[in-house]
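Rotation project, supervised by the postdoc (A.L.). Task for the rotation student: set up a whole-complex structure prediction and record inputs and outputs verbatim in this book. Inputs entered:
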Amino acid sequence: MTLTRKDFPNNFLFGAATAAYQIEGSQFGGAGPSHWDTFSATPGNVTRAETGAIACDHYHRFEQDFDLLKTGNFDAYRFSTSWSRVLPEGRGQVNQQGLDYYDRLTDALLERGIKPFQTLYHWEMPAALSDLGGWTNPDVHNWFGDFVDIIDDRIGDRMEAIATINEPWCASFLSHFHGIHAPGLRDVRAAARSMHYVLKAHGEAMTRLRAKGRKNLGIALNFEYAQPATASPNDVRAAATEDAVYNRWFIEAMTKGTYPAEALEGLEAHLPKGWQDDLKTHIHQPLDWLGVNYYTRKIHAHDPNASAWPYTKPAEGHLATTQMGWEVYPEGLHHFLKRMKNDYVGDLPILVTENGMAWEDHLKDGAADDPERIDFIQGHLAAMKRAIDEGVNLQGFMYWSLLDNYEWAEGYDKRFGIVHVDFDTLERTPKASYYMLKHALKRD
Ligand code: FCB
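Outputs recorded:
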């Protein structure tokens, strides 16, 4: 059975998501360098050292891309506004071209009847601020707050909703402990500080936007189902540690004003002095909605050879995987939607702000057939519907992503789009999954 718009509540929003660095082309329009421009230019960090310099050239082609949203019957579009495009040095001199661009982009969405969902930080830390420690600098919340004021003064009045930060776990732990994303650090102190300061910056942005009367403020958190490799107490504990760091740290801080004990075990010694006060003054404050990004599950085992916390290692799974090697596990999405309601946000509106899959899509006779993605989307729509039927106040779903794009450390290899992009010609070709959604979302 194919789920369609009719299977969801009347006002449920269907959208597609993107992020600035992944599609715009950072070399256009006077943007300053971000830590992704420099991280990617360093051999070994990104497949073939590919960068977002041109990406999908969305900077020049957004009208065409938004036509695809409109023809595809989408209601909403989630995008991010790049800090380094608006403030090339991170602070000080504003790049007017950058503000003008986001202004045109906003109007282009509204002209097509598409609701704009803005994300204020989807990973373009300006390189000049990265030089000063980026997310580990105790002033970063003020720098971010100033950027937020500037971009909001220009387009905030026309946003349907605003998210402060995209995936704080990736911006902090993945980037400062695992070293997989920019700035590529592997340092527990940097990890702890960035995990705390990214939340403080979220709080600062909320406070500033509230002061300006903005009412539809949230954040996009990512969740990954943490499954113990076996029922042994050690493996169960390993999964609980990973769950605390990944899935509980951020939501618990914002909704309860605490950090989970299993994560503090490894991180507390490295947090900045006065962190408990920041939880009270900045971090623990109401949200208007919560964004859930969900892709997969991971299996965790105790690592007997580990010399330091968190004493965990990944184990092999048994489910079908995507081009990323990620297991397809829609039950995990249902799990997190229920868990958010029951443990953290109650009836607060929830949006699935990202969900999607990468596949090695090829054009054949001018078309891209992607039955795997169609199944993936339908499987996850079913998980969302089940959560709604069980009382979760889920109000929308944004597919990741509208276009094949720059997939961070994976470069251009991994294709998440419902629209195929030829990275030589930049030609766009809607895939079969785009047409499936177009039909499913038709209003009659
Ligand atoms: C998420 C990111 C997004 C994209 C998808 C595949 O972690 O928010 O930019 O890369 O994963």
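Student's summary: Residues 19 and 80 are 5 Å apart (CA to CA).
Supervisor addendum: The radius of gyration is 20 Å.
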